[in-house]
Amino acid sequence: MFFSWALLSMAMASGLAAAEAENHDDLLSFVTLPNVRALKFDVAYRDRERVAPGYWFVAPYGVIDPEVPTHQWKPCQVGPYIYDADGGLVWAGSCMFDNRNIFDFKAANNIDDQPHLSFILQRAFNDDGSDKGYGYVLDQHYQEEYKVPVVNDLGSFNMHEFNVLDGGKSALACLYRSEETDLSTIGRPDERSWIVAGGLLELDTQTGEVLFEWSSYQQVQVDESVKVYPDSRPSDRPGWDYVHVNSADKNAVGDYLLSARFASTIYYISGQDGSIVWRLGGKRSDFALDFTFSKQHHARFVESNGTHHLISFLNNASDEAEQEENVSSALFVQIDTTATPMTATLVKRIERPDGGLTRLRGNVQSLGNGNTFVGWSEWGYQSEHDADGELLMEAKFGSTRFSSYRSYKFPFVGRPATPPDVVASVYGTDATDLSTIFHVSWNGATDIAGWRFYARSSADGVPVLIGNTTKRSFETMFIADGYVDWVSVQAVDQDEQVLGESEVHRTQTPDDWGQAGFQGTEPKPEEPYWRGEEEEEEEEEEEEGRAERQVLKAYEVVRGVGGFLILILGGCTLGGVMYCGCGRGMRAYQAVPDRVYGKGTQSTNLVRDYGFTHLSAGDLLRAEQIRPGSEYGELIRSYIREGQIVPMEITVALLSNAMAAAASEAAAAAAAAAAATSSASDEQEKEEQNVDARAKRFLIDGFPRQLDQAVFFEATVCPSDFTLFLDCPEQVMEARLLKRGETSGRDDDNADSIRKRFRTFVQTSMPVVEAFAGQDKVVSVSAVGGVDEVYARIRGALEGRGVMAV
């Protein structure tokens, strides 16, 4: 049988080799796509149920201007990316464009009723004039559909805007052109200076032909600028960037909306004659405003019929040199041009959640369910808010080395034209314990629910199904018993329909089996086992039982002795102890994320009074890395080296082995104690009971940290009976951890790191608690108070469930 969770690892010269890049823990790496180092997201949800469906569209950049390709950006890091709502990678397009800067990356679902993508490819570094950059449109297969060039006298395709209009026949871009003008409007009629006029272009997406052009030259005078002063020295070419246009939009009646950052003005421009119909904000506003904004970005029509408009934009309220307000905000303004005088009413203001300023760039997007999605630009910071402006979610890159000009959220269906990627490697220390480990991904596919794994005796041999698993993340790992030679995979959707199939690949093997730690002669691939239709039907009917058969034999040892399972999840508002009964007894584990207060102290108390065997998932992983002859060491090191989470199958395997060993030792000790005397005293009987309890009770520290880990552990080891939930306010938790930081020497015991851990806990560990609460398996205990006070509550909660001290 080739289907197993047994992890039998062997060091290899290839297979899990790391990408040739610095080991930044703020970047993701993948076995199947070694040239991609995607950015990690830190995500915090306030109310997950009310966020809009969709994916995140971002384009990280490190330096805003084109630069010489350097090792710093290799392998592929900058460029277009799609992430899911958990911050999990969906598509990495960085390699597709050789690490060139990408701007205004988003879904364009208004083209032929089919999913598309649009973005700006920035001009090449130090080019000869032939590569000025382009506006791109890709289809849902990530293949080029339009490539819109610059065909007039402009130097390059401007980075600020590529707004594909309905139907995809045309798109808006920003215009920057040097012009010479007199300075009469700032009181110096005899002087002249060069200026950079800003404007907009409407381009034919098929040919690049200019369908409409508007320029600020001779329409927006120099004195409207907030960056040109009466005593400013005249400029040579290219000139003063006096308006700095950064967005353009078009409504259904054919008029345009243009944002000029350095005029702090939004212009409504006639599509008929190019005249300025009205100005909002700035020195010559046509509206009396009871609100302020400045240095704005991304002005958009939300609704517009030519006379009444609802517009949105980002009020940066600052730039690199100065600020007009203390916090940036997203604004929604209702405009009525039929009133006398015309009115502009602020209907919604959403302040940046962290209270900061977005001095550069950014965007505001109205979502289909009435929510607002805001890209605050710096470090990829973004947030989602409900119709009333309440914060539902915030996220940002784990790296401070990158930002995204804009961030969007859209529904999207990606169907890559390329096949799935698979890498298979054989591991083991002798011929009896070989395993083939698969890593599989499909860059850009959005509908994958699971994977099927096939083996062949030759490259063109008959494929044999050897297993399947659900998709867990961008890259999924699967482990099959034995050494299979040729492999392939299929991606399936939730209805088990095949979406795509990989090419046939040969399993990677060590260059030198002996050096890799293999005992004996070089092994030969095994013949794939063909399962008939009847066996496949039986396997489908016994899915749950088959999952249990896939775990290590050590699980059976644990089941045999029984045990007591305890899970402690600690946090600013949460924590817990999970108790489980299984088979002839009860067994236990304790998962304690970093946020729990006094987890070490409370663990010690529980071990002392309840006879638990204490295990640490982290300690087990660290010990396995350095254990001589380790079956897992190289595999674990490769994941940690690349900043990836060690697959849960490995962690569960180590835990089950440790539990089995501890149970066996305790059982042997109990037998020895019983044999030592035929007439035991009360104290001896109590000691025997304590030894027997330790054989059945386990306290596991640091696991599970995610819901899928809890589900897998319960499915393959033991279901739980309850979770003790330790409830501690965030401010109390932060104070305790900061106090610990005075003596702990831990780099992460500081306010920023602590709050980041809080957000991570809410995102990843809170679903564990919520899942158990839904099964009426959560008992809440306040963690506020002294150690003894909290422990007394814990004991009361345990005894309330019939769990007594030994």
Automatic annotation (TrEMBL):
Q: Which InterPro entries match?
A: Adenylat/UMP-CMP_kin, Adenylat_kinase_CS, Arylsulfate_ST, ASST-like, P-loop_NTPase, Quinoprotein_ADH-like_sf
Where does the record place Acidic residues bias?
533-545
User: Where are the compositionally biased (Basic and acidic residues) regions?
Assistant: 523-532
The residue range of the signal peptide is: 1-21
Keyword Iron found: no
Q: Where are the transmembrane segments?
A: 560-580
Q: Name one Pfam family in it.
A: ADK
A GO term for molecular function: ATP binding
Please list where the region (Disordered) is annotated. Answer: 501-548
Record keyword Signal present:
yes
Keywords of this entry: Kinase, Membrane, Nucleotide-binding, Signal, Transferase, Transmembrane, Transmembrane helix
The family database entries (HAMAP family) matched by this protein are listed as:
Adenylate_kinase_Adk
List, alphabetically, the PANTHER family matched: ASST-DOMAIN-CONTAINING PROTEIN, PQQ ENZYME REPEAT PROTEIN-RELATED
What is the designated name of this protein? Adenylate kinase
Originating species: Aspergillus ochraceoroseus
